[in-house]
Design goal:
mainly beta, seven-stranded mixed β-sheet, globular, 119 residues
Length: 119
């Protein structure tokens, strides 16, 4: 199992930057994929970005060129650097990973961190 704790959210003006952190309770060296999702009020949770253990990244079209996901296995932490923030980026941001256990695929989520972008 793994527990995830996000931090770094807050209130920022449009055009500003924030860096989110996701600390894992165990080594992420062997965890293949970790990612960030977000959920705005009244909307479904959506993928923001993922990163594999090999460093391959994937981004939602809406954040390409503005957000950067990275991972530091030595610190068991995944980061999301968010630049040129827009009001549409306002959401609760969740860290995610998954493991394949004897019972099948199990998803793990953090508690979320609020990001609010003012216009």
């Amino acid at each position: 199992q793994v527990q995830l704790v996000e931090s770094g959210g807050g209130l920022v003006q449009a055009g500003g930057s924030l860096r989110l952190s996701c600390a894992a309770s165990r080594s992420i060296f062997s965890i293949n994929t970790m990612g960030w999702y977000r959920q705005a009020p009244g909307k479904q949770r959506e993928l923001v970005a993922t990163i594999t253990s090999g460093g391959n990244t994937n981004y939602a079209d809406s954040v390409k060129g503005r957000f950067t996901i990275s991972r530091d296995s030595a610190k068991n932490t995944v980061y999301l650097q968010m630049n040129s923030l827009k009001p549409d980026d306002t959401a609760v941001y969740y860290c995610n990973t998954f493991l394949f256990l004897n019972t099948g695929k199990v998803d793990y989520w953090g508690q979320g961190t609020q990001v609010t972008v003012s216009s």
